[in-house]
Specification:
Length: 410
Amino acid sequence: MNISIEEGLIEVLNKATKPVLSVEDLFKVLTEVNISSFIDNWGPEHIIQVYDPELQIHGFLVIDNTALGPGNGGIRISPTITPLEVFKLARTMTWKCALADVPFGGARSGIKANPKDIDKPQVVRSFAKKISPFVPNKYIAAPDENIGEKEINTFVDAVGDLQGAIGKPEQLGGIPYKSGTTGFGVGVALETGLELIYDLLHIPSELSETRIAIHGFDNVGVSTGRYLSNKGAKIVGLSDRWGAIYNPKGLNFAKAEKYAYAASLGRSVRNYEDSNCQILKRNDFLGVDCDAFVICCYDERMTAGASYSLKAKYVIEAANNTASTNADRLLHGHGSFVLPDLLASAGGVIAGYAEHARKDLGEAFSLIEAKMRKNTEIIVQRSIETGLPLRRVANEIAKERILDAMEGKN
């Protein structure tokens, strides 16, 4: 493990002419982290902390495991971010990249600052330069909270290497998030899983007969619904932060799309016009009658108690960490199948690798479809054979792939 603090930091602090963190405060920040608590057989390989005395911001980069390739993971800006949080995010990327079967390891980075109070391009440029010795051989950045295409453009410019990040603007070879790669992957995973478990769950084998509800109607919800609707699936329910709509006979998805990405109640999907449509409270949406329930909400987590309301026997986590461990355990115990986020939301990771490999959008979608089908088949088949929950199987397979790569390097 390698822990790096900038050389000459104390000298710089003492000579600074503008107010900065005191030496005592800075050491408190850097020593409050119990680095040893992070370490296990998987990583992390590097924990880097940096500080800019002029901008008065500090940041963290955790490179967790690079057995399969350089660590890939987003940069986020948050006033409350901690090294422990960054480590947990990096570890999730380690598993996700392995399960997606792409040659990336896991990493993540964060800048501790209020995004409203900083000159974001200046801060990103400073952070990029400070971690540049690790880019792109050990770390490949990506968008995350408060970091979008513009900031990624600044990042690759600062490090002087377009291969230093994914999620770049399209004119720089990026694959746009708005193209719906994550939702496309969700749709492929749902369809592939359905072909293997329909008889176990006593639900229709064909998408055209399957009733699907989508919880969350932003980028992932829209692109998932578009994929499924184009395949003939019956979308019976949609929700956003202001409420939900439900029609057991099916909604006109193309008509409903104009209410996507709602930023106010006036633009909510609740305004969808259909005399046969029921308007529901958001909290009641889990209980709609459907065959498959897709969770695309980043701001809500299904608890064990809430899982009792769920009528669907087939649940797809299209956003990170949408079901608690207890909820997942209860659903499995009741005979439901839950495609975990580690698998279902991997389309974006695969698209990131396609961008890094300089593939175009069409090639990216082909790669997503091939890998999502293969990985879903492997995980669902093992779950059926062993009786283990899909989430546990997914984690086991990710670890097996990393372990094989680690042993191959020895």
